[in-house]
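Escalation from tier 1.

The customer reports that the assembly of two entities below gives different structure tokens on two consecutive runs. Tier 1 could not reproduce it. I'm attaching the input and our single run for tier 2 to review.
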Amino acid sequence: MDWDACPQVSEGIEINTVSDGYIVYQPQRDRVHYLNQTAVLLLELCDGKTRAGDLAELVKSAFALSAPPTSEVSECLAKLFEEGLVH
Amino acid sequence: MPGQALRGGPRPLSGDRSIRLLACRIDISVDCERLAACLDQLLPRVEQRYPVSRQHHLVVRRDGDAYRISEDGIERWAESDPLSAAYAVGARVHALALAALPDFTKVHAGCASWDGRRLLAVGPPESGKTTLMARLAYDGFEVHGDELVLVQDGEALPYPRRFGIRGTTLALIPGLAEGRGEHVGPLVTDPRQLGFQWVIDRQPIAAVFYLVPNHDGRTYLEPCPKHLMAQRVMSQSTAPETGTQQWIRDVCDMLERALSYTLRIGNLDEAVAMLKETLQLTPKLADRPPTETA
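Tier 1 run:
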């Protein structure tokens, strides 16, 4: 993981919202992804301007956590990259 | 000469009937009383509040040892006995009815209403949908369907099918088991035949329950996150012909207006009480704001 990179949401995906998550459709791969609230927040933060290394701290603030959830964010971000939802 | 075979010619079509299934009206003509009786057992007779937009005509003629089936004037296939012909016609009737509604997402679910609030019970085969729906009918719910619900724009249209209740589950439904002795085969019936109202109409859903069997155990109700419920509902549904994007939108629109629970279903008395308690948390259909398409 390049923590200095600024990941960005991939183009062409269609986001549908439910109250506690996103249902994301990738037409190019004909795949559907079911994102919980943490994944939704990370996806929203992947705006092409925010450093990957800052994401855990931002999640900590958003959910009022006592410590940055570094490993969870790393795992979730890796999954978003792997599935092609961010680049 | 009605009711008698004509020497050297085809038998007269004495068993004419017209079946209405949502947007489809299908006229069926048969020349075999046994086949006609089988069809009457298989096909539902239900009050439906949905406009008819398509019509078809199926004809079954006995020809020697074969039962030849025509659809809209074209011979399609043949069966070797009246029961097989009845099942083939029954299956075709449902296929035509569903083909008339291509723009709906089709969800494997039971559907019932209580005190003006409608629920969906989603689940795979043998998760207990039919047993639960039959039991709800005897507990004051208005049951609409036990197997298939059509979803569009956040609303649900139950698909009218007769219920096939397994002999082994009859004992779980006291009102149904009474007087049937040791019935072992499946019981084909419907709410109307059991003495209840049976109405099919399109309405918003107040609560969605995903059924997880807990046979011989207690029943547990747990809130289910909607993004997880969306995944479950998608796994138990098929896309409309308009495509995957519409499929996802249909499911999300429905869930956004509904409560979402996992029902680990064991004891049916507990399940009924939990469903009533949960539905009371939701507004009645009459009190809900109109939907965009209403």
